Amino acid sequence: MVHIPAENYAPKITDDTRTPVPYVGEERELLVALLDFQRHTFELKCRGLEQAQMSLRSVPPSGLSLHGLLRHLAGAEQWWFSTQFSGSSEPLINYSDDDPDQDFERLDGDVGVAWEEWRRRTARSREIVAGASLDDTGVIQRTNEPVSLRRIMLHMIAEYARHNGHADLLRERIDGATGL
Question: Which of 55, 59, 149, 175 is deepest in the core (most CB within 10 A)?
Fold first, then answer.
């Protein structure tokens, strides 16, 4: 087998506004860097769009919109880091048992307010991560099972990556922008 140096097959970052994820490092450093990279990627997918564009459900029959994804990701930040890991009993945003899909479906709110909420939730998540070990655990509320911060970090990286793929398609349909 021929050894191919990492620099020859690793992705090349062309958008210099994002901090590249290191190719080597401690586990915590890599998880934090990759999650922040995914968060920033989502911001870039939405950059420069107006309220109506953010709320456009541009890939029918799907009901997804960038505004809905933004609301969903803010809720995911709260659910996983604050509620499941830290045990906060603060009321959930963009969710109720009676209306579980409101994050995606209710787009009547101001996108600027949704961005502020997302930024507040991501800042709180960063604080939680900074103050804990990857081996520390919270409790999955619905099953009462332990969940490590490491597992939550991995889940959130996957969550953002999946929704960044959705955002790619939505943005391309809105204004043709690709590769953000």
Answer: 149
